[in-house]
Amino acid sequence: MSLIKRYSNHSLKELVIIIESGNDYTDEAKDAVRTIIEFKEPSEVELKEIALEYWNNKINNNIRSLLLQNQKPNSEILSKEEIKKIMITAFEKYQEKLQLFQIDTTKYWFV
Length: 111
What we know:
By secondary structure, the chain is mainly alpha-helical. Helix content is 66%, strand content 0%. It has helices at 3-7, 12-20, 27-40, 44-61, 63-68, 80-100.
């Protein structure tokens, strides 16, 4: 079974996730997915919306590990500036969450 036949029934969202998923798929699979996307002729806005949703979820769910490993996500659809904005927003949310769970030691006195 060829890769184009294998992925031709996938939704546009699933195809974008395959392209954006880094090294999870082979180059041949990604090339087949790009060909399928070209045949489906989606608008640039539609592709960007799907990619933004994917990266928002991925970065927000994994911000701690991305920061600890000093990883910079690479997107084939979004620009570096768009990824940077998502990272900044996710980092700010992460900091807010840390502050929310921080213990105020001035309130607790043990004698």
